[in-house]
Amino acid sequence: MDSELQVEVGVSGPGECPVAAVSAGSETDVTSVRRASIPDGHGRFAEEFTAEGAATPRDEGISRIATYDTGAVYRFRRARDQHCVCEDVEAFGYPVSEIHATDGTLYVSFHAPDVETVREIVSGLQDRFSGIHLRKLTRCGEGSGADLALVDRSRLTARQREVLRTAHDMGYFEHPKGANAGEVADDLDISPSTFSEHLAAAQRKLLDAVLAT
Both 130 and 31 in a single domain? Predict the structure, then answer.
């Protein structure tokens, strides 16, 4: 059996998420979240989160239930029909294993069997929420040193994809080169400087995705 993928997705626009809201615009980090799996008599789900520092929840529905030296635990109740990043992930059949929030961005971790499943989940989140970015994609299991990256090709314009594909097909990235910049530019019917601009922009977007922490 192939080893699972460990995934962490950041959502900077998680909708009306109380957990993310508490961490927004302050020095408060939400370090853990716990969610009830069974609704109460009113069909609401209870959630608790631990916030470091002096959190100041603006939502009157959030109450402090415990205080410690480094922070406090808060509780709120969420209606069944309230859109939730975690529930959207779990709707695909994969439990959320960890949740935390910093500066208004919600980070959700889960395990998935393959990259195609990750793509499907990320695409589903993009349909409901904004600011979706993949922070971590690694393969679990003994002896697996793979550190995978999922690149969202929609970040590239059609022209940038064409430039990359043509350069790749002509051997521009090979060593020694199968074609130089001028030859690729001629094939694309653009100037060498325009080719360089498109290539640099595309490579920057790809490196941002691959090197993101």
Answer: yes
Instruction: Supply the pTM of this predicted model.
Output: 0.67
Its domain, for residue 22, covers: 5-139
Q: Is the pLDDT at 1 greater than 60, yes or no? A: no
> Rounded to whole angstroms, how far apart are CA atoms 19 and 147?
29
Among 85, 79, 80, which Cα is nearest to 21's? 85
First to last CA, the chain: 28
Tokens of 104: 């208004």
pLDDT at 187: 95
Q: Domain total for the chain? A: 2
Pairing of strands 130-139, 44-52: unpaired
Residues 108, 184 within the same domain: no
> What type of residue is 24?
A
Q: What is the pLDDT of residues 5-55, one digit of tens each?
A: 889 898 988 988 989 988 886 678 898 899 988 989 888 999 999 988 767
CB 125 within 8 A of CB 89: yes
> In terms of Cα–Cα distance, which of 78, 74, 52, 44 is closest to 62?
74
Task: Cite the DSSP H helix spans in 3-128.
Answer: 18-23, 85-90, 115-128
**Pair 10, 106: CB distance under 8 Å:** yes
pLDDT interval class at 95 (50, 70, 90):
very high
